TrEMBL record:
One Pfam family it belongs to: CDP-OH_P_transf
GO cellular component: endoplasmic reticulum membrane
Region (Disordered), start-end ranges: 1-39
Catalytic reactions on record: a CDP-1,2-diacyl-sn-glycerol + L-serine = a 1,2-diacyl-sn-glycero-3-phospho-L-serine + CMP + H(+)
Enzyme Commission designation: 2.7.8.8
Protein name: CDP-diacylglycerol--serine O-phosphatidyltransferase
Main location: endoplasmic reticulum
Length: 268
């Protein structure tokens, strides 16, 4: 197999050139991040991690060992899976709340979403500490985020009273917007303009973790016991097939912000 026939990995050709041979545009072109030794300083680095090279990709595809999938996971990947677990357990807690009516279960659902945020933040730190990127890392991260910050918050919203037909359709729209936002990120992240360190300059649309704003709102509603029939602002079109809670409009707007292409949020 020739090197030109394998994979879609970018290669950076090295060349020796004098200052007179390099024009201004070439000298200003962002260079691929260098592989740094693992250290605590890498935790605060804003550089992208070194990408897996072609040989790692081929090894992953051709690995025929038993449990090869598990063997090829990195430490950061296991932390990402804990993010997915947190989102799943939040959903289970919501189901227990709907079965028992005990508010401690819905409070637990909020807690596990917050725990998911911790794992979502920590997996990147571990990857930088070890100075290793994973072939499956980005995909796992997106899927875990969908569970923890997409499906789980929508499940909480349903459990505390957003249960009319229109409410459920809006919740579905909210989740699907998060899903498409994550898919677009995986496709377009390499094409978003980057600064001199190789870090993308902005988010295209609201990142799905911004759904935590509504998680906080719902946690406050649970704390005040403003749920079910006592949800603030009440419903409109009562007694019809189009009845819905006014608060659900906020979830609809949030979803629109996630799929927006014109909304560009600078990265800190």
């Amino acid at each position: 197999m020739s090197s030109s026939s394998t994979t879609g990995f970018k290669k950076f050709d090295s060349a020796i050139a004098s200052d007179s041979e390099m024009d201004e545009s070439e000298s200003a072109r962002p260079q691929p991040p260098l592989r740094r030794s693992s250290s605590l300083f890498s935790l605060t680095s804003k550089e992208d991690l070194p990408k897996p090279d072609e040989s790692e990709y081929i090894h992953f595809i051709d690995d025929e060992r038993h449990f090869s999938l598990i063997r090829n996971l990195h430490m950061a990947d296991f932390i990402t899976l804990l993010n997915g677990f947190s989102g799943f357990y939040s959903i289970i807690s919501c189901l227990r709340y709907t079965l028992t009516g005990k508010s401690n279960y819905v409070q637990r659902a909020h807690f596990f979403i917050v725990l998911g945020i911790f794992f979502d933040f920590f997996d990147g730190k571990v990857a930088r500490l070890r100075n290793k990127s994973s072939l499956m890392g980005q995909e796992l991260d997106s899927l875990a985020d969908l569970i923890s910050f997409g499906v789980s918050p929508a499940t909480i919203a349903f459990a505390i009273g957003f249960q009319t037909t229109v409410d459920v359709l809006i919740l579905a729209f909210w989740v699907l917007c998060g899903l498409t936002r994550l898919a677009r990120f995986n496709i377009s992240t390499n094409n978003i303009p980057k600064d001199h360190t190789g870090k993308t300059k902005y988010f295209e649309g609201l990142p799905i973790p911004t759904n935590l704003f509504w998680v906080g709102v719902m946690a406050f509603l649970v704390y005040k016991d403003w749920i079910h029939q006592d949800l603030p602002l009440g419903t409109v079109l009562q007694g019809t097939s189009f009845e819905f809670h006014l608060l659900s409009i906020g979830l609809f707007i949030q979803g629109c912000g996630e799929i927006s292409k014109s909304l560009k949020i600078p990265k800190p």
